[in-house]
Amino acid sequence: MQVGKPILYSYFRSSCSWRVRIALALKGIDYEMMPINLVKDGGQQLAIIEYLEETRPTPRLLPQDPKKRASVRMISDLIAGGIQPLQNLSVLKQVGQENQLTWAQNAITSGFNALERILQSTAGRYCVGDEVSMADLCLVPQVANAERFKVDLTPYPTISRINKTLLALEAFQVSHPCRQPDTPAELRA
User: Which residues form the GST C-terminal domain (predicted)?
Assistant: First the structure.
């Protein structure tokens, strides 16, 4: 490993790791990856992204406008703190194998109902206006989780449109779980 290069402890399917990988790719930050098999997703990803924003402010992941910045943080918190933790492996183990799919679907659907309404008033090309933000870094991994848990995305046209637009961007492609060093061969792109 090179001295001074950030180290990201990552698991290919972790939403938290994926969000940080997108931020690093968008900001052009070269880093070392240490694959780990997470039992529990960490909750520090938003703090890490905010740190990257403060230390390497280009491109911006938090808008300059205070109202837009508050919207970005609200959407990020809704996804990273309100939707995603409810379908983490540690929670799913508690609800039992036979209830996991229904539990995850209900958690995601409930959160997406609120998120779709919010995005209808904040979205431009992306979650908040026309610049990629921290909210977008949270959205894409959560939509992937929704797809993994077979959630019908038809009732969420705004979420689906933004996700499709973001997945076309290079930073979202190179950070995708199917392109990570620890991705099992059968899940690679």
Answer: 65-185
Look at residues 116, 188, 99 and name the one whose alpha carbon lies nearest to residue 152: 116
Q: How confident is the model at residue 43 (pLDDT cuts 50, 70, 90)?
A: low
Give me 131's structure tokens.
């610049």
Q: Sort residue 129 into left (φ over 0), alpha (ψ -120 to 50) or beta.
A: left
Whether 149 is in a domain gets the answer yes
**What would the mean pLDDT of 14-21 be, rounded to a whole number?**
90
Q: How far is CA 123 from CA 26, 28, 115, 136, 159, in A?
A: 20, 25, 11, 10, 9
Band of residue 10 on the pLDDT scale cut at 50, 70, 90: confident
- Expressed as residue numbers, the domain containing 26 is 7-181
Element (H, E) at 8: strand 7-10
Give a yes or no: residue 22 inside a domain. Answer: yes
Closest residue by Cα to residue 102 from 89, 121, 112, 87 = 87
Task: Give the pLDDT mean for 86-95.
Answer: 83
Residue pLDDT, tens place only, 102-124: 999 999 999 999 999 999 999 99
Question: Cβ–Cβ contacts within 10 Å for residue 153, how many?
Answer: 15
Tokens of 85: 């933790």
* Domain assignment of residue 188, yes or no: no
Q: Would residue 99 count as lying in a domain? A: yes
